[in-house]
Design a protein that fits this description.
The complex is a heterodimer.
Chain A lengths: L27 E6 L3 H13 L2 E6 L2 H10 L4 E5 L7 H10 L6 E5 L4 H9 L4 E4 L4 H12 L10 E4 L2 E4 L4 E4 L2 E3 L3 H12 L5 E2 H9 L9 H14 L7 E4 L3 E4 L4
Parallel strand pairs in A: 1-2, 1-3, 3-4, 4-5
Antiparallel strand pairs in A: 6-7, 7-8, 8-9, 10-12, 11-12
Chain B lengths: L1 H9 L1 H68 L5 E5 L5 E4 L1 E4 L8 E2 L4 E5 L9 E9 L5 E7 L3 H49 L15 H50 L3 H33 L7 E4 H18 L3 E6 L4 E4 L1 H19 L7 E9 L2 E8 L9 H4 L18 H11 L3 E6 L10 E8 L4
Parallel strand pairs in B: 9-11
Antiparallel strand pairs in B: 1-2, 1-7, 3-5, 4-6, 5-6, 6-7, 8-10, 11-12, 12-14, 13-14
Helix pairs in contact in B: 2-3, 4-5, 5-9, 6-7, 7-9
The chains are: A alpha/beta, B alpha+beta.
Organism (chain A): Neorhizobium phenanthreniclasticum
Keywords (chain A): DNA-binding, Phosphoprotein
Protein name (chain A): Response regulator transcription factor
Chain lengths: ~250, ~475
C-alpha cells in the first residue's frame, strides 16, 4: 500500500484533536462565493461543524452585494464565477473600502495565478483541489480570532516566550537557543497560537515557497524545533494535528 | 483555366505588376508628349531665326545692288536643296518670281511675321499638287514690291505618327516586361504558395511531421516557411507531450484509482469501527497522492506551455541553493545521510524563484530517496559553480546511480526505474525539473558522481543555466 508521507510524522501527543472546531471559537462569520453548488454545500456543512457561521452566494454579483451589505470576518471567493469574475469582485470590494480578508480558491495552476490573485487584492490563495483542513486552517488564520496581535513584540504561550526584537526565546525563564529559521518557524506558530497551521502555510510563511511540500521536510523541521522547546520540560506545547498540520497551544 | 486566370489576377504579384504597367505607361506618355512639345518649340524658334537672318540679308542686298542683285541672290538660294520658300510679288500681290506655285491669299499683304501658319502650293509635286503649311516673314520694299521668305513646316501628321509609334513601342516593351514579371515572379510565387498550401493541407489532416518547403534563396517566402516550420516543430512537440501525458495518465492513474475504489468498497463493507476508520484514512491518503500527481502534471504542462514566463525576475541562484540545502539538511540527517554544500555566492539569473526552488527540492527529494541504496556511507550534496558561460547547479548523491543508457528514460513522465515502486513519488519530479530548465533556456544533465566507482557511481543531476546578458 502506498501511504502518503504527509501523515507519517505523527507523534505521541497527537491525540486526534479536532481541527479547530473547539468550543472556545467565538462565532466567526464568513461568506463563501462559489458557483459549484455541491462544493459549496460540502464547505458550508464542514465550516458549520467547525463552529463558523457561513453565508453562501453562487455568483459574482450577488456575492459582491452580500459582501458589501453585510459584515464578514473572511470572504472565500472562487476565482471563476458566473456574472462577475472572482478577481473583479475582490477589486470592486476593495474599491468600496471593504478590507475584509479574502481567500481565493482557484482551479487554475499555481505559480502565476497566485500572484495575479494577490495583486487583485486577495490575502491568501488556495489552489483546487485542496483538503478541507487546509482551507479551514487558512480561514481561521485570516479571521484571526485566536492569534496574538500582530503588533505585540513578545509572544507568549504558557511559559514559552518569544521576543521579536531581541530574537530571544525563553521557556520558564531559561533561554532556548534556536537557528534563525527555527526562530521564524516558532514565531509564525506563536503568532497563530491556538490555531492550526498547515505544512503548506509553514512553507509559505517561513520559507516563502508556495507549493505543497511533497515530503516530510516541514515535519522534520517542526520536530527539531519541538525537541528544542520541549526537551527539558514536561508539558507539551507544540501539537501535531492529525491530517491537518500543527498548533501551538497551552493546554492549561 | 479561367479559374486559374481569376486566381492569378487575385494574386498580389499580378496586381502589382499591372499597377506598375499603368504607372509606367502614364509616365512614358507624359515624357513623349513633353519631349515632342519641347522640340517643336525649339524647331520653330530656329526656323524663325534663320528666316529673320535671310530677310536681313535680302534687305541688305537690295539696298546695295537694287532689284537685280536681289533677284540673283534669291534665284541662287532657291536652287539649293531643301531650300526655303521665296516669293517676290508685285504691289497688288501678283507673284513675280519664286519657288512657290501659289500662296494662301492675304499672306503677302502685311509686313513682318505671318500670324498663323498658312498653306501654300509648291511646284512640281510628284503626287500632284498638295497644300503644305509654312511660316514666313514678309518684307515690303519701298518700290512696292513684296518679298517673302518662308519655311515649310513639314507634315504635322508625320510628326504625330512618330510620337504614336514611339508610344506604342514603349508600351509593347513594358507589356512584355510585365508578362515576364507575371510568369517569372508571379507564377513562381503562386507555385510556391500552392506548395505551401498543399503542405498545410497535409498538416491539417493530422500529419504534424510535415514541413513547408524551404528554398535556397532565403527570401521572404523562405523566411516565412522557416518560422512556420519552427512553429510547427513547437506544436508537434507540445502535441506529442500531450499525447504522451494522456497515455501515461491512462496507464498510471488507473492503478491508484482502482486501488482507491477497492479501499472504499472495503471500508463500506467493514463492520469494526477502528478498521473502518483506518481504511478511510488510507483512502484520504491515496486521494492526496492522486491530487499531488494531478497538480504536478498541471504544473509541468503549464511550465511547458511557457505561460509562467511573464513572472520572471532576477533571482539569486546562490540564495535559493543555500535555502534549499538548509531546508533539506535535517531531512537528510534524519535519513542518515550527510549533506554537503559548495556554493559560489552571488550568482544571479533571470527566472522564477518558485519554479527553480521546486526543481531543486525535487532533486533533493530524489537524492535523499536513492542515496541510501549505494554502498558505503550515504552522502548527498549541492554544488553551484560558474563554468564556460553557464551556471551549473548540481545535486549529487553516491547511491546506485542510473546507467547511462537509462538516463533519457527517467526524464519521461511517470517513469520510475524502481519497478516495485516501493518509494513514494509521482514519477514526475525529473520531468518538472526538465520543463523548468527548458523554460529558463537551460538544460538538464545527468551524470555519474564517481565514474571510477562501478559499484556505486552515484547520480549527479545538473541544472545548467545560461548566464544572463548584462
Amino acid at each position: 500500500m502506498e501511504t502518503s508521507v504527509r501523515y507519517s510524522a505523527e507523534t505521541a501527543e497527537s491525540n486526534g484533536a479536532k481541527t479547530g472546531g473547539d468550543a472556545i471559537v467565538p462565532h466567526m462569520k464568513i461568506l463563501v462565493i462559489e458557483d459549484d453548488l455541491e462544493a459549496a454545500a460540502y464547505m458550508t456543512k464542514a465550516f458549520r461543524e467547525a463552529g463558523i457561521v457561513v453565508d453562501h452566494a453562487s455568483d459574482g454579483e450577488s456575492g459582491l452585494f452580500m459582501g458589501t451589505e453585510n459584515s464578514y470576518d473572511v470572504l472565500v471567493i472562487d476565482r471563476m464565477l458566473p456574472r462577475r469574475d472572482g478577481l473583479s469582485v475582490i477589486s470592486e470590494l476593495r474599491k468600496r473600502g471593504i478590507n475584509t480578508p479574502v481567500l481565493i480558491l482557484s482551479a487554475l495552476g499555481q505559480v502565476d495565478d497566485r500572484v495575479t490573485g494577490l495583486r487583485a487584492g486577495g490575502d491568501d490563495y488556495l489552489p483546487k483541489p485542496y483538503a478541507f483542513s487546509e482551507l479551514l486552517a487558512r480561514v481561521e488564520v485570516l479571521g484571526r480570532r485566536k492569534g496574538t496581535p500582530e503588533q505585540d513584540m513578545v509572544y507568549r504561550v504558557g511559559d514559552l516566550e518569544l521576543d521579536r526584537l531581541s530574537h530571544e526565546v525563553k521557556r520558564a525563564g531559561k533561554e532556548v537557543l534556536l537557528q534563525p529559521r527555527e526562530f521564524r518557524l516558532l514565531e509564525y506558530l506563536m503568532k497563530n497560537a491556538g490555531q492550526v497551521v498547515t505544512r503548506t502555510m509553514l512553507l509559505e510563511n517561513v520559507w516563502d515557497y508556495h507549493f505543497d511540500p511533497q515530503t516530510n521536510v516541514i515535519d522534520v523541521h517542526v520536530s527539531r524545533l519541538r525537541s528544542k522547546i520541549e526537551k527539558d520540560f514536561d508539558k507539551p506545547l507544540l501539537k501535531t494535528i492529525r491530517g491537518a498540520g500543527y498548533m501551538i497551544k497551552d493546554e492549561a | 483555366m479561367l479559374a486559374r486566370a481569376r486566381l492569378m489576377f487575385r494574386s498580389t504579384a499580378v496586381r502589382l505588376s499591372a499597377l506598375y504597367i499603368l504607372l509606367f505607361a502614364l509616365c512614358a506618355a507624359f515624357l513623349v508628349f513633353y519631349v515632342t512639345a519641347m522640340s517643336e518649340r525649339l524647331l520653330a524658334q530656329q526656323t524663325r531665326q534663320t528666316l529673320q537672318e535671310e530677310v536681313q540679308d535680302i534687305e541688305r542686298a537690295y539696298e546695295r545692288g537694287g532689284i537685280n542683285l536681289l533677284l540673283r541672290m534669291m534665284e541662287r538660294r532657291a536652287r539649293q536643296p531643301g531650300a526655303n520658300l521665296y516669293v517676290i510679288a508685285g504691289p497688288n500681290g501678283e507673284m513675280l518670281a519664286g519657288n512657290v506655285a501659289s500662296v494662301q491669299p492675304g499672306v503677302l499683304d502685311e509686313q513682318g511675321w505671318t500670324k498663323f501658319p498658312f498653306s501654300y502650293e509648291p511646284y512640281s509635286e510628284a503626287a500632284g499638287p498638295r497644300r503644305h503649311l509654312a511660316v514666313a516673314n514678309v518684307l515690303l520694299l519701298d518700290n512696292g514690291l513684296r518679298v517673302m521668305v518662308g519655311r515649310d513646316l513639314g507634315d504635322p501628321n508625320r510628326f504625330r505618327g512618330l510620337v504614336r509609334r514611339a508610344l506604342m513601342v514603349a508600351l509593347a516593351i513594358m507589356g512584355f516586361g510585365a508578362l515576364i514579371i507575371w510568369f517569372g515572379i508571379g507564377r513562381n510565387a503562386l507555385k510556391r504558395i500552392d506548395r505551401m498550401s498543399a503542405a498545410s493541407q497535409k498538416i491539417m489532416a493530422g500529419d504534424l511531421s510535415q514541413r513547408l518547403p524551404v528554398g535556397k534563396s532565403g527570401d521572404e517566402f523562405d523566411r516565412l516557411s522557416d518560422s512556420l516550420n519552427a512553429m510547427l516543430g513547437r506544436i508537434e512537440k507540445l502535441n506529442e507531450g500531450l499525447r504522451q501525458v494522456s497515455d501515461n495518465i491512462a496507464h498510471d492513474l488507473k492503478t491508484p484509482l482502482t486501488r482507491l475504489r477497492n479501499k472504499a468498497a472495503d471500508a463500506l463493507a467493514e463492520k469494526r469501527e477502528d478498521v473502518r476508520r483506518s481504511a478511510l484514512e488510507g483512502i484520504i491518503a491515496e486521494s492526496d497522492q492522486l491530487i499531488r500527481t494531478f497538480n504536478a502534471l498541471l504544473m509541468i504542462s503549464r511550465v511547458e506551455a511557457g505561460s509562467i514566463a511573464a513572472e520572471m525576475s532576477e533571482v539569486d541562484l546562490s540564495a535559493i541553493s543555500a535555502d534549499s540545502a538548509e531546508l533539506y539538511e535535517p531531512v537528510a540527517e534524519e535519513a542518515g545521510l550527510s549533506l554537503t554544500t559548495a556554493l559560489e555566492p552571488g550568482l544571479i539569473v533571470r527566472g522564477n524563484r518558485e519554479l527553480i526552488g521546486q526543481a531543486i527540492f525535487n532533486l533533493l527529494d530524489n537524492a535523499i530517496k536513492y542515496a541510501a541504496g549505494g554502498k558505503g556511507e550515504p552522502k548527498i550534496g549541492v554544488k553551484l559553480a560558474k563554468s564556460d558561460g553557464t551556471f551549473r547547479l548540481s545535486v549529487w548523491d553516491n547511491g546506485p546511480g542510473i546507467p547511462a543508457e537509462k538516463r533519457d528514460e527517467v526524464l519521461k513522465r511517470f517513469v520510475r526505474l524502481d519497478e516495485s515502486r516501493s518509494k513514494p513519488g509521482t514519477g514526475l519530479g525529473l520531468s518538472l525539473v526538465e520543463a523548468v530548465m527548458e523554460l529558463h533556456g537551460g538544460s538538464l544533465e545527468l551524470s555519474s558522481t564517481h565514474k571510477e566507482n562501478t559499484e556505486a557511481p552515484g547520480l549527479t543531476v545538473t541544472m545548467v543555466f545560461p548566464v544572463p546578458k548584462p
